[in-house]
Write a structure and sequence with these properties.
elongated, 8-stranded mixed β-sheet, about 300 residues
Length: about 300
Amino acid sequence: MKNLLDRFRSGLQKTRERIGESLGQGMDTLLQRTKVDAGTRDALEEALLAADVGPGATERLIAQAEKRMAAERGIDLREALERTAVTMLAETPARFDPAGVKPWVALLVGVNGVGKTTLAGKLAAHFARDGRATLLVAADTFRAAAPEQLEAWAGRAGVEIVRGAEGADPAAVVHDGLGAALARGCEVVLIDTAGRLHTKHNLMAELEKVTRICARLVPGAPHHVLLVLDATLGQNGLHQAREFQKAATVTSLALTKLDGTARGGAVLGIVDQLRLPVSVVGLGEGVDDWAPFDAEAFAKGLFETAPA
């Protein structure tokens, strides 16, 4: 089984290739330099923008890497970039993990098509394998077959599920789900909400209602609001995230489909702009093809190829 660094290297292959294409055939040679001249800086800036790091984060990353190289003799550009990226990504760390409360209630939110339901199923399987009594709540009552999809994941994960009829009030489903969790002594409750466009104010108001229901039934809930973003959208996820922050207090971000995009550098830009930590990344389609976010593994996966 691949270790975490190898999984990030594999997942970021397309992004790393995009950086390499922009830098030219001498990517390794360029990143081994211990001084940054104007030409190197321009090439690096172009490469990072091509990987969708974003202008602000690109400028900050290069400037801080240059300062690091000036202050610490002997480190090359690759190491300076990696260590600076780790610093940027680890400023506000977060773990998607129950923290001393029972039941621990987590809300998965985001727009349509980002992979919330699939991620909810994968996370449920993870917690169940850890021996935690886990309940999935199918609060997406709008998308056709969404409850059935989550029910299939519940079967794969070996966890219980509470679902309502198609078109049912999502807040009512959440109410029933949390009531069931309390009655059954569940440790983890994962609530899969409907995908909603951040421009649809009625749906965002509904999300606020769901949040209030959680707090009414379980003190302090939701304990974690996980905003799921599609990594293939790159910087376009920024506006979505800002709007969701208005409807719910977002705890951390999940970036799905990281393995299918050449725009994985957007992780740096999104964290830099929103000051929100990433806790989870999706690295494939299988039940285990996700990982807790690791800043160091991400940074190395972005700039380092696997050793021969």
